[in-house]
Every structure is written in structure tokens, then in C-alpha cells.
Amino acid sequence: MFQPLKGQRMMEQAFLESLMDKAWPALEREELEREETGDWVLRASGGVTQRANSVWPRNASGGLEEGPGIAPSVRAAAEWYRLRRLPLIFQIFDDSRSAALNAYLDEQRYTRQSATKIMVRGAEGLPVSTSGRNVEMATEPSEEWLSVWWTVDGRGGEAELSVAHKILSACPALYALVRDDDGVPAAVGRLALVDGWGGIYSMATSAEHRRRGYGAEVLAALLNAGTHHDLEGFWLLVTEANHGAQRLYSQAGFSSHGSYLYRQAPLRRAPSGC
Q1: SS3 sequence of the chain
Q2: Residue 178 resides in a domain
Q3: Of the candidates 81, 102, 117, which is a domain's last residue?
């Protein structure tokens, strides 16, 4: 099972970050390399999801440039996002490599948003469905799949959904959908297939179908589908505030393996006219 080993936590955390980046790929990306900061990956996708529109400070183990004002590397990143009419957001992982950058963002009063736990499990002893429900599996998200997911987690209209569809389709994945007894789509989920690992994403149950076991059925189906791809293990992401989902994932054999949050630049107010 994927577990942190003494002296190897940083290497494993970097590997997980790489998996996550590939599982939810931004439509546009550029590497910003500076001697002082390591290298940052700038990601943009029209503002659809924080993950695909944030800086991934990959290998950011060094300190930031000293001196008053905004650090040049941060200024360069801010300009890149300004040209795309997007706010400057950093995805900050909770480990020692991020300490200097996190401290700098505190000084600059960057907000803290969407605290998220990373959970992992191995490929052995997977949960088995006992309800007898048929979970439909596909290699592309259907219109029904997209509708359930977007109704629960979507932000925006048809244009934003189109961007999200492109993000989903840019990585090999399996899509699960389960229906209620009347044939109405009840819950969905996605298994991203990346470098021999499986990432559980887009778990969503429609409001009228919650607390009836549909999410657990989707999760079990995705995990067992992964066995046909000889996966080493699985990871998933869940917000720290979603205790119900955390219980579901813990019961399915997942355990905590780090966390991250997003740091957004404070709004700069224009001078008033009076």
C-alpha cells in the first residue's frame, strides 16, 4: 500500500502531486523556473475549478527572493494570470517544501480556501457491492453523467461545462453511473488512470438520492474496475469539511496522506473617486 516511509515522505508527496496534476490536467500550462523558488507550473482553464486554474509550486523547496514589495516570481505569475483575467491562486501542500512560500503568502495576506485532505489505499481487499444494483461503466462521460455531476459540483453554465468536459477527457478514465429503481441517474464517479495508479474524482450524488448507499456503490464499482488495469493503489481528494464523505472513504479502506489548500491573492481595491 502507498504509505509514507521515513526519509521518503517528500519523494512520495511529490509523486502524488504529479498524479493529481495529470488526473485533472489544465487546458493551458506554462513552467516558471527561477533559481530562488525552484519551478512553478502555471495552470489555466478559463476559471473552471481551482485546481486547473492555480499555480502548482512544484519543487518549491527554496526561499523566495528577499527585498521589499512583491517577489519577482510572484509578480511574474500574477501577470500571467492577469492576461487571462484570472486571479492568482496557489495550490499549497502541507509539507516542508511549501513552508517558505506559505510564510510569504501569509505576509502578503493571501486568503486560505478549500482545505482538502488526500487519502490513499492499496489495491488489495477492495469493497464488494452487495446491493445488486447495476453500475454502468464507460470510458467517456455521458450526457447523464455530466448532468448529475454538474448539478452537484458545477459552477457556471454551458460554457463552463464544456471546459470541464475537456479537462475530464484529457486524461484516460472510467466513468461510473448508478440509477435508482425508476431508472433515474442517482450518483456518478470517475476513476482517473495515471501512471499505474487510480484517482477517484467527481463523486456526486443528486440531492434526492442521498443517504441511500448510491455513493458507496459507485465507489466500490470504480475500485473494482481498477483491478482490470493492474493498479498499484488509489488516491482521492475530499474537503476537510465533508465528514460524511470522509467516513465513506475510511470504510472503503482509505487513510489520510497529507493535505493542501488554495491561497488566493487579496483583492486590490481601486482608489475611490471622492
Answers
A1: CCCCCCCCHHHHHHHHHHHHHHHCCCCEEEEEEECCCEEEEEEECCCCCCHHHCEECCCCCCCCCCCCCCCHHHHHHHHHHHCCCCCCEEEEECCHHHHHHHHHHHHCCCEEEEEEEEEEEECCCCCCCCCCCCEEEECCCCHHHHHHHHHHHCCCCHHHHHHHHHHHHCCCEEEEEEECCCCCEEEEEEEEEECCEEEEEEEEECHHHCCCCHHHHHHHHHHHHHHHHCCCEEEEEEECCCHHHHHHHHHCCCEEEEEEEEEECCCCCCCCCC
A2: yes
A3: 117
